[in-house]
């Protein structure tokens, strides 16, 4: 049960740090990275909610794990797209 609270605390910490980075400055790269940190916090929260204590004798919820894996793929592709757009934005003539 201690690991459940550890995962929840880590998820809350990631969400807090990502939110702080999102509203801290106007830099676009910082905002993209902050959104990635917030996404990691949400994924950590979903994995911790999928945990079932050993006392019940049930395995972890596999649907939430599948959603996290799908979310990771979508997050990586969205980050690549956002970084490509940022590169084009910075490379254009002023």
Automatic annotation (TrEMBL):
<dbReference type="InterPro" id="IPR039428">
    <property type="entry name" value="NUOK/Mnh_C1-like"/>
</dbReference>
<dbReference type="GO" id="GO:0016020">
    <property type="term" value="C:membrane"/>
</dbReference>
<dbReference type="Pfam" id="PF00420">
    <property type="entry name" value="Oxidored_q2"/>
</dbReference>
<keyword id="KW-1133">Transmembrane helix</keyword>
<protein>
    <submittedName>
        <fullName>NADH-ubiquinone oxidoreductase, chain 4L</fullName>
    </submittedName>
</protein>
<feature type="transmembrane region" description="Helical">
    <location>
        <begin position="6"/>
        <end position="25"/>
    </location>
</feature>
<keyword id="KW-0812">Transmembrane</keyword>
<keyword id="KW-0472">Membrane</keyword>
<keyword id="KW-0830">Ubiquinone</keyword>
<feature type="transmembrane region" description="Helical">
    <location>
        <begin position="63"/>
        <end position="86"/>
    </location>
</feature>
<feature type="transmembrane region" description="Helical">
    <location>
        <begin position="32"/>
        <end position="51"/>
    </location>
</feature>
